[in-house]
């Protein structure tokens, strides 16, 4: 963002009176700053003496991280009663730093959020003829775009087990990237997504770690490109999708999942039903709108006088942040 407000102007934010800097001496005394943001992954092992030794009553200390709490847990007590706000992927954060926005058919933002109120499947309109036409051209079972082959979630091991079950039905997973034999360059992301929409019935939205609300672009790819996501993660996925839009490997297990996929591929009428939601909801990146851009939103809350004056603190921060039994 630089040491000025250019980033907020470039984004056409509603409020542009915020200045971002990593120069601690800019105001002479760091207690003069309204907000101090702490980068989650960098403070895990930061010595206590390198933390601010004094703070003003008006200051907000903010914990910020888009990385999973399972990969970057806070296993120390000195951050309890330390942070006032959080800026993370967790849906209970004051500002959400995530990958997607959900809009309804009136273009209003409806999620993701902790308590989603999805339209009942029975009330959803039938899939449009245009969508049916696109779905009818698919010929391949599943794709996975992945570059991190070693993860805490052990998704690579799960995929091998899953692939063995699929092979019993003569179905296969095409793995693109460093962990597979196929290539689709990140520099040609649109072409990769178009291929996904055109050719594949399913996409593996397997996260690298299991943590509450940790859902990344791995889910956005299939939802924006008419492919049924197969999810594997620690999230409650009903906060992100209608039940009728995806398959969950942790709920089904690989054997039943392979059986279900085969049945849907062999019965196109049933597969098509997984796209009824497209009549009523759409998925977007947060950067698509100043309403949802994280930086714009953060500057906005700094201009909400009542919110800034309100006293708040995460008394047991490690419990809020960490997955159960992580530390």
Describe this structure in words.
This is Fucosyltransferase. One of its GO terms (cellular component) is Golgi cisterna membrane. Its main location: Golgi. It is a single-pass type II membrane protein. Belongs to the glycosyltransferase 10 family. The chain has 327 residues and is of the alpha/beta class. The strands form 3 sheets. Strands 8-7-9-10-11 form a 5-stranded parallel beta sheet, with helices on both faces. Strands 1-2-3-4 form a 4-stranded parallel beta sheet. Strands 6-5-12 form a 3-stranded antiparallel beta sheet. Strand 1, helix 2 and strand 2 form a beta-alpha-beta unit. It starts with 5 loop residues before the first helix and ends in a 6-residue tail after the last helix.
What topology does this entry show?
Blueprint: H1 6-10, E1 35-39, H2 40-43, E2 60-65, E3 85-88, E4 95-96, E5 101-104, E6 109-111, H3 129-135, E7 140-145, H4 155-167, E8 173-176, H5 189-199, E9 200-206, H6 217-224, E10 228-232, E11 247-248, H7 249-266, H8 268-272, E12 281-284, H9 294-302, H10 305-309, H11 317-321
Parallel strand pairs: 1-2, 2-3, 3-4, 7-8, 7-9, 9-10, 10-11
Antiparallel strand pairs: 5-6, 5-12
Enzyme class: transferase
Family: Belongs to the glycosyltransferase 10 family.
Membrane topology: Single-pass type II membrane protein
């Amino acid at each position: 963002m630089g040491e000025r407000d250019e980033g907020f102007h470039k984004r056409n934010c509603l409020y542009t009176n915020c200045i971002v800097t990593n120069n601690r001496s800019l105001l002479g005394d760091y207690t003069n700053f309204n907000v101090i943001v702490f980068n989650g992954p960098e403070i895990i092992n930061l010595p206590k003496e390198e933390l601010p030794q004094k703070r003003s009553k008006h200051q907000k200390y903010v914990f910020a991280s888009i990385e999973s709490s399972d990969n970057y847990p806070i296993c120390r007590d000195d951050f309890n009663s330390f942070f006032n706000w959080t800026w993370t992927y967790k849906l209970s954060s004051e500002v959400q730093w995530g990958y997607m926005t959900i809009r309804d058919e009136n273009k209003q933002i409806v999620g993701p959020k902790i308590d989603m109120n999805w339209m009942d499947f029975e009330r959803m309109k039938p899939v449009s003829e245009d969508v049916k036409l696109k779905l009818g051209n698919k010929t391949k079972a599943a794709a996975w775009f992945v570059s991190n082959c070693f993860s805490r979630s052990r998704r690579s091991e799960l995929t091998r087990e899953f692939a063995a079950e699929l092979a019993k039905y003569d179905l296969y997973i095409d793995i693109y990237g460093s962990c597979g034999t196929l290539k689709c360059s990140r520099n040609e992301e649109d072409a990769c997504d178009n291929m996904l929409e055109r050719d594949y019935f399913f996409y593996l939205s397997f996260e690298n770690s299991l943590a509450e609300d940790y859902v990344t672009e791995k889910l956005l790819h299939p939802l924006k490109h008419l492919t049924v996501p197969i999810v594997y993660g620690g999230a409650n996925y009903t906060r992100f999708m209608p039940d009728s839009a995806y398959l969950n490997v942790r709920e089904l297990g690989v054997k039943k999942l392979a059986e279900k996929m085969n049945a849907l591929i062999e019965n196109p009428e049933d597969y098509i039903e997984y796209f009824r939601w497209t009549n009523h909801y759409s998925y977007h990146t947060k950067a698509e709108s100043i309403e949802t851009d994280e930086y714009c939103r953060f500057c906005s809350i700094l201009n909400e006088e009542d919110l800034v004056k309100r006293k708040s603190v995460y008394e047991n921060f490690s419990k809020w942040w960490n997955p159960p039994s992580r530390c």
